[in-house]
Amino acid sequence: SQTIHQWPATLVQPVGSPLSLECTVEGTSNPNLYWYRQAAGRGLQLLFYSVGIGQISSEVPQNLSASRPQDRQFILSSKKLLLSDSGFYLCAWSRDSHTDTQYFGPGTRLTVL
Amino acid sequence: AQTVTQSQPEMSVQEAETVTLSCTYDTSESDYYLFWYKQPPSRQMILVIRQEAYKQQNATENRFSVNFQKAAKSFSLKISDSQLGDAAMYFCAYRKVANKLIFGTGTLLAVQP
Q1: Quick one: A67 exposed, middle or buried, by C-beta within 10 A (0-12, 13-18, 19+)?
Q2: Which of A86, A90, B34, B79 has a CA positioned 20 to 30 A from the CA of residue B67?
Q3: pLDDT beneath 70, residues of chain A
Q4: Maximum distance among all alpha carbons in chain B?
Q5: What is residue B4's three-state secondary structure?
Q6: In terms of residue numbers, what domain contains A100?
Q7: Nearest-Cα residue of chain A relative to residue B45
Q8: Cβ(B35)–Cβ(B47) under 8 Å?
Q9: Residue A46 maps to which CATH number?
Q10: What pLDDT is stored for residue A2 in this prediction?
Q11: CATH (domain of B38)
Q12: How many structural domains does chain A have?
């Protein structure tokens, strides 16, 4: 069966510091991968998605970037965090982009102080 | 642009009773997918049920069922025999074929013992 992991679970960072959140998927190959952000009391906003290694699409201009160095690894980064980057970050995967359901990881709670 | 609207920010139901959560969406597409996700206090997004727009039959998963009204662009979730573990935030989501998920703002469901 497939599983999706996110690391770390919780993170507190000062403004201006770098960020690296990791997402890995097990039990499948060539998945589509997604990064979402959920602000407090709000729905999910798609940040990035990837259909393959090195292929990243950005949905919203922002202070963040994403990379996919390996087939089942998706990384969310920032060079300098802003207060507005605080939120709950969810990674998701799907088998293909046409019809399949997205399955979510446990999430990372990021607090920028 | 496609939008998803959940007009009930909060709902409450007695244990063992039935509750219906509302969702409407706006699209000009004829082929798409609709989902209900559950987000418990752990904040992991869990798929509850999925509906393909080309199917007239309403999807059912155990105690969960949907009322899909394509012409009215309505997609409500019915939870029968509510249990304490059903307490969570519920998100309705829309997905055009080969496109991103668009989420509603969620409905917080409380289950009273």
Answers
A1: middle
A2: A90
A3: 41, 61, 97-99
A4: 42
A5: strand
A6: 3-112
A7: A104
A8: yes
A9: 2.60.40.10
A10: 87
A11: 2.60.40.10
A12: 1
Nearest to B91 by CA among A92, A110, A49: A92
> If pLDDT is split at 50, 70 and 90, which confidence band does B96 have?
confident
Q: Give the total number of structural domains in chain B.
A: 1
| Distance (Å) of CA B83 to CA A98, B50, B64, B110 | 34, 21, 12, 10
pLDDT at A99: 63
What is the predicted pLDDT for the residue at A1? 86
Predicted pLDDT of residue A101 = 86
The residue range of the domain holding B93 is: 3-112
Contact criterion met (CB < 8 Å) for A106 and B44? yes
A32: three-class secondary structure by DSSP: strand
Identity of the residue numbered A65 = S
Helices (H), A1-113: none
> In this structure, which amino acid lies at residue B99?
N
**CB contact (8 A) between residue B97 and residue A43:** no
User: Which of A42, A44, A97 is facing B98, going by the closest CB pair?
Assistant: A97
For range B14-43, the mean pLDDT: 94
Report, as an integer, the average pLDDT of B39-68.
Answer: 93
**Is B45's CB within 8 Å of A90's CB?**
yes
Instruction: Tell me the nearest-neighbour CA distance from B49 into chain A, angstroms.
Output: 10
Give the model's pLDDT for residue B22: 98
Type of residue found at A66:
A
Token pair belonging to B20: 């219906």
